[in-house]
Amino acid sequence: MAHSREKSLCCGAGGGGIALETRVSTELSKRRLKEAVDTGASVVLTACTYCFRMLEDANKVVKTNLRVMDLVEFLDSVMGD
Fold first, then answer.
1. What is the CB neighbour count within 10 angstroms for residue 42?
2. What are the φ/ψ torsions at residue 11 (nearest 5 degrees)?
3. Which structural domain, as residue segments, surrounds residue 52?
């Protein structure tokens, strides 16, 4: 993604953004989702429950083909029975 590692951006939930649901937090989550889409990925994984919620909510608004998954959910899906 364009913003990663030392240049990473918040998903919008940090600093209480998840509780406040401000325009700024909503725009941040949409921006992060767009960065994920721009990579060509079909799935974005996160181990953070806040990121999961923010990206899921953004995906409902933006309506991408990207699937937002929790890391544990993803591991379960690839490990099988």
1. 11
2. -80, -10
3. 5-79
Spatial contact of 51 and 35, defined as CB atoms under 8 Å apart: no
How many folded domains does the chain comprise?
A: 1
- Calculate the alpha carbon distances from 81 to 23, 32, 70 in Å: 42, 33, 18
Q: CA-CA distance, 47 to 38, in Å (whole number)?
A: 21
Mention every residue, 6+ apart, whose C-beta is less than 8 A from residue 64.
33, 37
pLDDT digits (tens, 9 = 90+) for 15-32: 777 777 677 888 889 999
**CA separation for the pair 81, 79 (Å, rounded):** 7
Q: What pTM was estimated for this model as a whole?
A: 0.83
Query: To 5 degrees, how large is the angle CA 39–CA 65–CA 9?
Result: 45
